[in-house]
Every structure is written in C-alpha cells, then in structure tokens.
Amino acid sequence: MKSPFIYQVVFFAIVCTTTFFSEKALAQTRYLDNVFTDATVTSDVVYGINVSVLTGLPGGPFALKMDVYEPSGDTETNRPVVIVMHTGNFLPAVYNGSPTGSKTDNAVVELCEQFTRRGYVAIAMAYRLGWDPLNTVEAIRTGSIMNAAYRAVQDAHTCVRYLRMDVTLNGNTFGIDTSKFVIGGIGTGGYVSLGFDAFDDYAELQFLKFMDFTDPFNPVPYIDTALSGDFNGEWTRPMNTPSHVGYSNNANMIFNIGGAMGDSSWMAAGDLPIISFHCINDPNAPYHYGAVIVPTTGGFVLNASGGHSVVWNANNLGNNDAFATETYTDCFSERADLINDGIKGLFPFQTPPPGSTTCSDGAGETEQGSPWDWWDEAAYIATATNIGKDGDLENCHALLSNPNMSEYKAKYYADTIVGYLLPRMYKVLFGTYIDGVCYVDIYGAEGPSKVTIYPNPSADIIKISAEDLLRTIALYDISGRLIYEKTDIGAKMFMLSNTRIIPGMYFAQITTDHGQATTKIIFK
C-alpha cells in the first residue's frame, strides 16, 4: 500500500527542537527537561565597578550589570549557573553596524529563558565596550580590540567572583551552587568565553601576532598589564578597578556560539571542556584559522582560531573527555556528526549561500554568521534614525547577513544549540550520561505542537508522546510501503515495538488532534 505523504525529514537548526528524559523512564529530569514554565528576572544587578574607555580616557567609572533569570516557583536553592554574554563587536548597537549588542538581545534572553526552564540560574552579563574599529592603522585596530577583549574577560571573572561573594556575604540571593559554573557567549561574547579559561599565561601576550611592531626596534605587547592589570582583573591598575578579590574565578565548562579564540595555542591540557557552535561560512569570525574582520568596515584585525580549530585541539588535549567519551544518538548529535569531521563537541551550521537581495547603496547579501539573532525592525530603524543614520538602510544591511530573519527561525537555532549543549553540559556538571531526545513539530492553525520520539534509534521500543492526543501512527519503509498502522489511539503516549519489524530506517507518519507530520525513526 502506498501513501501520499512526501518523504520529508526537516533537520536541525530549522527543524528539530528538543526535550530530554531519564534513561529508564519518561519522567522529567531537572537540568535537561523543561520543568518550569516561567522565569523571574532581576534586572541590572551591579556586579562590579570598573574603568570604561567609552567614558573618556584615561577612563571613568562604569557599573557592570547583569540580569539574573531564575525559575519561577522553584524551591531549590543550590542551582548551577550559566552565564551568557552578548555579541556586538565591543561597541553599542547601531554604532557596531547591527541591531544587537546588549544583555537584552533577543538571542540572549531566549537562551537564558531556555536554561531557566530547565532549572538553571541564567545570567545575561554585560561587559565593558570600546575600541577603535575605524582607525586606518592596522596596529591600532588590533591593539584596541585586543584590549577590549581583555577587559571583557576580566569582567567575566568579576561576575563569577561576585556570585560567589554573594553566597558568602549576602546569604545566596540567587540560590546558586558555587561549584557549578558554565561560561558562554554569542558572537563577540564567544571570543570572551573562549578567552575566559585559555587566555591565562603572560607568555601568551608576547606571541608575535600580539606584539606592536610600530617601532620595529622596540616591539611591545598590545596588552600592557602595567596599565590593564591581570587576566582575572584582580590587580589595581590605571585601567582596572578590581572587585571581590579573593573569591574563586573557577568554572566548569565553556561554550561559544560564533566568535573565535585569539590563538588555539593558548590552550593546554587541563583546560575546561569546550562546546562550539559556528557557521561554517561566517564572514567575520573564522571557522578554522583565519582572519577576524571588522563588520562595519571590512578591515582586518588579526588571525584567530575558530570553532573547528578550538574543539579539535580541546579533544586532542583530552579536555573534552568528560563528555566526548560518550556516544550521543539524538538528532542534534546525528546532524553535527555528519559535518563536523568527527570532532566531538563541535556543531557546525550550514547556512544557505547568499541570495541576490541588495540595499539602496548597492550592498548585497553576505554569508550568514548569526542566524540565531532577531530584532524588532521598526524599533531598530527608529533608533538608528534618532542618532542621525539612515534607519532603513541600516536595517537592510543587517538583513543582508541574516535573510529571512524572524523570531520563529531564530528560536529553532536556539533550540538546536540548547539541544546539543545540554546533555554534554549535564555530563560535565553531574557526571551522568543521558542521551538527548528530539521531537518533531506538527503545524496547525494555532502554530506548532510537539511530538517526542524516544529513544531513536532503538533496539526494541520507541516511545512516542505528544502535547495533543495521538490519533494514528503509520510506519512506512524506504520504498513507501506501509508496514504498520495503529488507529484510534486516543492517548498522549504510545509504545511502538519492533515486534515483526526488520531493523532499519523507517518513516513514521504521526497524526494528532493538532495535525500530521512525518519523521524518520530507526530500529537497530
């Protein structure tokens, strides 16, 4: 019997969202499953005061702020912390040529809310901005952005120390576990997260590419610790005012979504595990090793190591052994393993090639580097116009590197990021391996509804559960032949057994009260 369904398995960033279950049951597992529905947000918590170049040299005081996301109604008081740092090219939004660049960016908020729904305390952390991207002298561009990154790394350490200080002196305001910290960043924040642990040796400041050869007879490091202080920001110096000195800077894991590391040779055995998400054709930050480009001008800054190089090195050093020794079979891992050259912990994004869209000044589409971003176009146009720019043109430029920008699209990327990250993060923090589970969307007039398939692949039983009542499940082989059908289910969960089913790949057509979808399943 043939079916009219189309063989269509929609994949990953614009496809597959995730939920997780314990190995023995479909019960929810905190820190993996969505166990909360809402977040309580405490905004603009000041975690330190430091010197900012944006307030004029030699610098003025600047309040370092964070937004704290906690699960609403949670009674747990000993929760892991995930810090998320925003993108923005170390400049404020609009001035950096994009609608993003703050702790309230939609992508940051979405990730923090996703972590919070799993039970984590999530921190949207702002850091000091400021450098000189328009300078025509390459050495000044390179030096100023290196110092901007250095200051942001100091701020990340300050944030970690603040949270530990709060536990000791303020009675643990946010109910955190001081032994469990994960540091992550998006875009520019990815540079900061990758520098948080690896950028820690003063010899690294004297690599040739980090030296200013303006005077070839007296080259000097771009970063002057006599002026800027130490990596952790604990020394009092003209450009650094330390906070919470004496509290630990330690963390457990790093992740980056875009961005790069100044040089993968910064890494050493014993550094923190790293998970990396990176668009393969990112035009501004290299996926392998290559040039970092100023988005607003196209100017070269320095050569750096992208996600492919960084995670490859982390694996070879044994730093990712805490999770890389496990075999994950969920759809996110399956997708990543198809295109990540066998580098466990690396999720590459393959985005469509640039289209033919142009703006009024003739600028055309570029490769996508941050498809997880979305913004309010009207608000961005108004903001750009208010500071004297052509708002419509600025918005058009932003869309050139993120065509088809929408909340819907961006959230699928966020789902993919969290879906790939969480089981590995859980293994690092808790030492327990639990594989991920994917689900498919069924689309109806009210929007998408989720159907979960777990485990997949399976050697015996696949559990199918839905947000709505399941009605029918039909199983087809790869030739389109119907080999199994169950009708009138009338429940939200169904156990599909491999009895009399030959091991192999099949397509399951699932119908609920919401609609119908087709997805791939595998019996081993």
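The record above closes out task 2.4. Task 2.5 opens with a second protein, given below.
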Amino acid sequence: MDKVMKIAIIGGGKRCKAFLEMFDARRFPKLCAEIVAVADPNPDAVGIRLAREKTILTTSDYKDFYSIRDLDLVIELTGKEELLRDFQKNKPSRVRVLESAISRLFGDILRLREEFLFTRRQVDLVEGIMNSLFISIRDWVLVMQPDHKLLDVNEAFLGHVRMPKEEVIGRLCHRIAFGSAIQCSGEGFHCPVARCLETGNIAHGILEGTGEAGSVRYHEITAVPLKAASGRIELVVECFRDITDELEQRVEQKVVSLKRDLMRLIHEEKMISLGKLAASTVHEINNPLSGIIALAKLMQQELQSGEPDAESRERFIYYLGLISTESARCSGILTDLLRFSRQSGGVRTTFQLNDLVEKAVHFVQYRLDTRNIKARTELDDSLPPMTGEQSQIQQCLLNLIFNAVDAMPRGGDLTLRTTWLPAASQNRIEVIDTGTGIPREILPRIFDPFFSTKSRDRGTGLGLSVVHGIVKEHGGSIYVKSQEGFGARFILKFPITGTDQWALPRDSGKKRLRGE
C-alpha cells in the first residue's frame, strides 16, 4: 500500500477552500495524500473555516508546520514568494516545498476552477430564466432544426395543438401547427423560417388563419436564426403572436380618423359650394328686394300726395301683402343657405330625397340660367323616406350638379331622376348631363382625392371624393357611366332599412316631371 503524503497549506483564502473542496470531490484520484494543516493569520478566512469544519489543524503561523511529524509537502497558495523563501530557511530537511512556479500553477488551476464555477452558475441562472420565460410566455414559441423538425415547444403552443410534447418533438412545424403537408404559404406570404434560412437574418411575416368557430385570426411570425461560430445556422426559434385584436383596434382608430377627416373635407367642400351659390343667391334675393323697394316707394309717394282714400287703402293692403310675401321668400332663401353652411354634427334624420333634389335645383337655378342649361327633374312619387344627414346628401347633389355645369360650358341639358327599387330596397338617384364626358383613361381615378382635370383656380379635386365618402358613409354605392363627347351619368343608390320604409302609395311608380 502506498504511503499517504501529508500536505500543509500556506494561505487559508478562497484558493485554499477550493483546493479542499477538490480533495473532497476526489478531483485527484491518483494522488494518495491528505491535508493535515492550514496556516493563515486571518482566523475567519474561508479556507481556515472549512479546514476547522474538517478537523484539520489550523494555525496563524506557518512556522508551526516545523513541528508536524512526517510532514511531506508544503503548498503556498497566497502568491507571496517571500513566504516560501522564509519557510525554507528553517524547514526540516524531510519536508519538501513546491517551488513558486508550481505553486502559481496550482493557483491558476484553482482560479480557472473558480471562473468555471462562476460561469456555470451564470449559465444556470440564464438557463433558468429562459426556461421560465419559455414555459410562461403566452405566444407560441417553437425551436426547430433547419429541416423544420421541432426540437422544443412551449406550453402555449401545446395548448393550441392539444398534444403532449413527446408527440410534437421531431415532427414538421407546419404539419403540427396547421395540419399542412407543405410549408405555410398564401397570397403575399412567404414562410419566415424559409426566408430566415435563405438570408441568415431575422425574418417576419403575418399569416391569416382560422380560429375557434371559424373566426379569422392573424398571427405575426418572427423567425430568429441561432448560428454556430462558423456562421452556419444550427437552430431557428419561431415565435407566433396573435395580433387580431390589435389589428381590429387599429382599424377602428383608423375608421374614426377617416370619418373625422371626411367631415372636415365635407365642410371645406361645402364652403366652396356655398361660394358658388352666392352668385345665384344674390339674384334670388335681389328680385324680391327690388319689388319690395319699388312698392315701398310707391306707397311713400301716394301718402305724400295726401290722405289716402278707400281705394288707396285697399291698394296699400295689397302692396303690404306682396311685401310680406317677398320678405318671407328672402328669409327662406337665407335660412336655407345658413342651414346648408353649418356642420350637421353627425345628426341623422328621416327625410324625403325628392325634396332635396328640388331644393338643390332651386339653389342653382340662376347659375343654370346664366349658363344656358335646361334643368329637368323626374321624381318618383313612390320614393320612401330615407335616414341620413340631409346636409351631406344635399352636398352630394350640389357637387354633382356643379360638375355637370362645368362640363357644359356652351349649355346643355341636366336631368335629375329618382327611382324606387323595391327588389333591392334602395332609393336611386341619377344626375345626367349632356356635357363633354369623361375620358376612359381617367375614369377609374375620378373619385381619388385631389384628382382634378380643372385648373387650380377652378377646383380642389375633392368634390367627387367627398361625394364618394358621403355615399359610402350612408351605406350606399356610386358609379358613373360616361363616354367622351357624350355626357356623363352619375348613379347613386342608398339602402332603405325596415324603419325607413312606408306604405307605398297607390300611384307607385308615377313620375313628377319638371322643366319640360
């Protein structure tokens, strides 16, 4: 049996503690030795405390090692070479001392061991955190090989596919996630994992799928490559995040924003239309005012000539009646203009579309007369009332009429026709002109915002886009039929709900014609 080597250690710090632990763990299986003493001036050093726990002799002075019987080897772990030189001056000849280079080598080994243990603790900590996140995260997380075979998945994904992990591992991701025999694909969609493997970079994509009860769900997919030191992709981490609710919220916010912008554009376009109406309004108001002034002067002259007789009083009563009628007419015109200029604030009422058509034609009658345009209305008396914002629908009619007027610089015919479509439960209105028509190449763009064939001083390019927005806001549809040189026909349809409809009159389908 080999003789057991007795070893003493100078230095009771961390290296000593590590050395003692390595002995206990039998890290030196071929070294037949035991540690019999530890010296350090600090009685609370970690190595000293551990040595005391193991009933190893501890001392504050390494010179006490001289009295240890059969001591074979002394190891210095403080890194102070002067201690070795001092110890060697008076040591017994039988005691060997490791040279400073070997002692430093031992010290380096112990330091590397400490660093290794620290790194392993860090790795264990990070691995624990990652495992906790991997298990608890609500998004689907899949770890796969470059051949798309799954190596690991989290609990959220297992809950989605309703399968135990052992049945998932080793199978293709697209077959487990979506039951598809081929990679995920679709219009405008390319598998992020495949793109990640092609480019070596992080890849994203949005996939449309089916959720519970056949509902449509949208998932944002992110594929992250995990590369070896050589740059070769060894694994891919794929994350699925359900963004359906987030998209719906964004859409709702966008709709609210668009409605707000539409209301602003409607009001701006309304002010432009109001300016165009000013010329007609001046004429409409000037005629009754001229009559009022003339009657007032006539009455003044007769009163100045003497006391009126019975016949004159009768005539004055008649004149006052005319003045009252004409004043009320002026007031009505101004009231209509004021009502038209205000923003409606989103208030919907039930109204008769035929009334709006007649009012719109009345508004622009003077403008039509000055342009030598003959207006004709064909109104269907069976038209049921509809619900909406009157000022907006009137804005549509005025914008279309103004467009028609601009398209007939040398005069022409303008027809406004209403029709009740019982099969579709819709009110239909047509605005027809005999103007220059719309070229085929620009026909698809006429409802685009700011698109206009007019010069800047004659239009903003918002008229038809505002009309389109108002019609859509009311759940209706609008389209145009036109051929260059042969006029244009704008057709608007508005749905009538059950609460809007009334009992159709017996003369259903009868047209009221005006302007013939």
